[in-house]
């Protein structure tokens, strides 16, 4: 298998370009979270509403440019994202937002993130080097979770990361998507918690003291499996004809 670092320069530039166009925007969004953080709110202005408006605008632009299938997935992700946020944050107390609410930009952000990573993972140049990128991301994730475990006693995050690897062990076609999701979610979580937009308790759910957690834990992308599974189930239910046609094609290709 070719190493990621031996990819021809021309193709590597294409990969960087696709990354920047598809999901690089979310790395910039980390800095926008500063305006919903403790420092900005305490010293200048409570700007959560403007950020919500900005996210609505950004989501609309991304939705408009997406292909029909991605548009449907984004809609499903918004609906499921609202439900998931309420369950994990308000009901289970897994984490809490600054105002103890669910900011509108969060479920919209989930859907936009889901859609952009989906398009990134399906880009031709990315699929060409799928195994190389996947291997590199896996190493990055393993190092990240291990460092968090030893430096921050993040047992909860390490266990969730381990579960991510276990769940993906037989889902070879989904690995790059979820590894990309893991890394980007980790970046967003580090920024969001550093600015004080939300926080995680010192142990899992604030209940299980035998599972110490960092703020944030490393492996929270595990719960994006639920978002993916939810979107997949809803998509197949509302697009049964398309799904049956797809299964028939797969059957003919692999009798």
Q: Could you describe the 3D structure shown?
A:
The strands form two sheets. A two-stranded antiparallel sheet has the order 1-2. It has a two-stranded antiparallel ribbon with strand order 3-4. Helix 6 (105-122) packs antiparallel against helix 10 and helix 8 (130-152) packs parallel to helix 10. With 255 residues, the chain is mostly helical. It is globular and about 50 Å long. It has one domain (4-253). Strand 3 (203-204) and strand 4 form a beta hairpin. It has twelve helices and four strands, in the order αααααβαααααβββαα.
User: What average pLDDT do the residues reach?
Assistant: 83
Any idea what the radius of gyration is?
Answer: 19 Å
Percentage of residues assigned to helices: over 70%
DSSP summary, beta strand count: 4
Shape: globular
**What is the H/E string?**
HHHHHEHHHHHEEEHH
Number of domains: 1
In whole angstroms, the N-to-C terminal distance is 28 Å
Largest sheet: 2 strands, antiparallel
Strand order of the largest sheet: 1-2
Strand residue content: under 5%
What oligomeric assembly is this protein in?
single chain
Structural class by SSE content: mainly alpha
How many helices? The count is: 12
| Unreliable parts | 245-255
């Amino acid at each position: 298998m070719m190493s990621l670092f031996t990819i021809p320069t021309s193709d590597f530039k294409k990969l960087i370009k696709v990354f920047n166009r598809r999901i690089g925007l979310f790395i910039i969004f980390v800095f926008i979270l500063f305006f919903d953080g403790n420092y900005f709110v305490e010293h200048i202005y409570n700007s959560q509403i403007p950020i919500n408006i900005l996210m609505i605008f950004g989501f609309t632009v991304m939705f408009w440019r997406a292909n029909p299938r991605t548009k449907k997935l984004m809609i499903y992700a918004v609906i499921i994202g609202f439900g998931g946020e309420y369950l994990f944050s308000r009901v289970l107390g897994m984490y809490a937002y600054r105002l103890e609410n669910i900011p509108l930009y969060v479920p919209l952000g989930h859907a936009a993130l889901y859609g952009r990573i989906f398009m990134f993972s399906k880009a031709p140049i990315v699929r060409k080097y799928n195994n190389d990128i996947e291997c590199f991301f896996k190493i990055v994730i393993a190092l990240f979770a291990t460092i968090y475990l030893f430096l921050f006693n993040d047992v909860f995050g390490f266990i969730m990361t381990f579960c991510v690897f276990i769940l993906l062990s037989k889902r070879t076609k989904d690995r790059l998507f979820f590894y990309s999701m893991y890394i980007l979610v980790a970046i967003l979580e580090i920024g969001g918690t550093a600015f004080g937009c939300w926080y995680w308790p010192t142990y899992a759910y604030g209940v299980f003291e035998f599972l110490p957690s960092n703020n944030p834990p490393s492996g929270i992308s595990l719960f994006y499996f639920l978002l993916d599974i939810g979107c997949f189930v809803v998509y197949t239910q509302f697009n049964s004809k398309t799904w049956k046609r797809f299964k028939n094609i797969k059957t003919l290709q692999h009798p």
